[in-house]
Amino acid sequence: MSAKLQSQGRVCLLPLIAILLSIASCAAEQKNIKRVSLVGTGASFPAPLYERWLSDYNQQNPNIEINYQAIGSSAGVQQLIDGTVDFAASDVGITREQAAKIKRGVIALPITAGSIVLAYNLTPSVRQSPQVNLPTALRLPRQVYVDIFLGKITNWNHPRIAAANPGVSLPDLPIQVVHRTDGSGTTSVFTQHLSAISPEWKSKIGAGKSIAWQVGVGGKGNEGVTALIQQIPGAIGYVEYVYAKQNKLPVAALENKSGNYITPTPESVAQTLEAVKLPGDNLIAFITDPTGAQSYPIVTYSWLLTYHQYPNRVKAQALKNFVNWAVIDGQKSSLELGYIPLSKKVVLQVQSAVKKIAE
What region holds the PBP domain (predicted)? Predict the structure, then answer.
């Protein structure tokens, strides 16, 4: 074969070699993807939704394994700071002081939203009078539920509760307050609301993920509080709506700033969220006492916290893919479980922020 033909043969082989190298590279990357495992911890508020998401996502992407453990917002954020997890979840986002401790940087992504409700164990003691057309939920005025958690109203047949619920036979039964024992974003959101509507609460107790409760018994996580409410006649406690819904616990209609008694529905919660403006720099914001006439008063986003930089390129891409799936396809599970789907505007904000995750 002439030198010219040999040269042409080599030239013809070059595209084939490039294709083979590309196939080999893709195969290697696919091999890496098969081994991708992500670990997250944090808030119990979104845990039922995360459980559904991770199951659905794994069915569609069997090469990606994502594990999530609900240990409370405080513990989740701390593990993110310590670098022992790939992501965390928090119902209060992350403070600037906490973020400053993370050398790899942090990005806060609102991933879902929901309501915090006052669930109680009075059925069937609270019954509807046949002469009065009553709502199905027990009505609790703003200062009444503050005073219940302050320990100032201690019995279910208290005149102030009775006045808000004409026609209801209230039992002569002690009120047993149930609260969280772990560092909790749910607690922080609830106590921020109480501080906003009660100067006495703000001065005596204040707001935070862990506070000095004046009365009551404690349970760990939303699931622990829910279990105690179920077990104790006369109990009342604050939990994420989904936990009350799944366990068929009645929830109170709470008086909002406009003086209306509002139950947590997709419509009343969505009205509250419309008033929450997420800043462009960190996508973290709260509304502690919404003004809308039909707004449910205790609502929050729940944030997924990622690092800004990941040393493992495949892990970074797997997490970005999951978040992008969660804010589109994953939102379809929200209403069914009792959460509120993100608005189109918030979805766009999250998609933009996800692009900042670097390798």
Answer: 37-327
